[in-house]
Write a structure and sequence with these properties.
5-stranded mixed sheet, 4-stranded antiparallel sheet
């Protein structure tokens, strides 16, 4: 415990300060744009300090303060945190160790909404993340992995002509996949996770994600870098972020 350790360290080594950090987790914004939006805050701060770190789930903003007490450091962090949130608050989905699936699960439960997933390149990873939380039966209505075109047509009523003309990896197919599952919110994911299967027009890392509800449908084109595992994980992270934004904007 830091409070009991501090007096010992002060006596033995003469330490007079504590260092406290807080992490703001972001999604849906790249490092360069995020840095541009808060660059003046980064340059102006010496205590607390601001640092951007890239993680598979997105860019994190770490605020670190040094003070004589833990509570004093926390107050210093609160001031900078408020400044950061005023600039990029819409992209911040969690603080410290809370992950995206926990955030989305809480939003679904609090708003009495259900979600169903139709996945291709992610192979059920989105449903797996959502069902990793106890009590997920309250908000997960169902999930289906439709990897082949035949499965997309049979189980989700994806139009054969669209598959033939637009291809399985297309915004039109993602939209029909999301609409093909029965729930308050339907999610469709189709893409090329690699390392094979890419073309000049449809490179590895191209993923279309659709989120459909009774009010509207949103389809987003994404280009994710990295190996197969990273592309698949980032696809599910973006899908969760789209669910989060859909509920927030309802």
């Amino acid at each position: 415990d830091l409070r009991s350790l501090k007096p010992f360290l002060q006596r033995k080594f003469g330490f007079k300060h504590v260092i406290v950090s807080k992490v703001l987790n972001t999604c849906g914004i790249g490092e360069s744009l995020l840095e541009t939006k808060i660059k003046d805050l980064i340059l102006a701060q010496s205590n607390p300090t601001l640092a951007l770190l890239i993680r598979p789930e997105g860019v994190i903003i770490r605020i670190t303060a040094k003070a004589s007490t833990h509570s004093e450091a926390e107050k210093m962090i609160e001031v900078v945190e408020a400044q950061v949130k005023a600039r990029v608050g819409e992209y911040i989905y969690a603080v410290d160790d809370e992950n995206m699936e926990e955030v989305v699960a809480k939003l679904l439960k609090d708003n009495c909404l259900t979600v169903a997933c139709a996945e291709s390149c992610t192979g059920g990873m989105l449903a797996s993340r959502l069902t990793s939380i106890s009590g997920s039966s309250m908000y997960i209505k169902g999930s289906i992995v439709t990897y082949s075109n035949e499965a997309k047509m049979k189980f989700l009523d994806v139009d054969k002509e669209i598959l033939d003309t637009k291809g399985a990896v297309s915004p039109e197919v993602a939209k029909q996949m999301a609409e093909g599952v029965s729930s308050d919110i339907g999610v469709g994911i189709t893409g090329i996770a690699g390392p094979t299967g890419g073309t000049d027009k449809k490179p590895v890392g191209l993923v279309y994600i659709a989120v459909a509800g009774k009010d509207n449908i949103v389809v987003k084109e994404n280009i994710f870098s990295g190996d197969r595992a990273r592309v698949r994980y980032r696809s599910t992270q973006q899908a969760l972020e789209m669910i989060r934004q859909y509920i927030k904007n309802k």
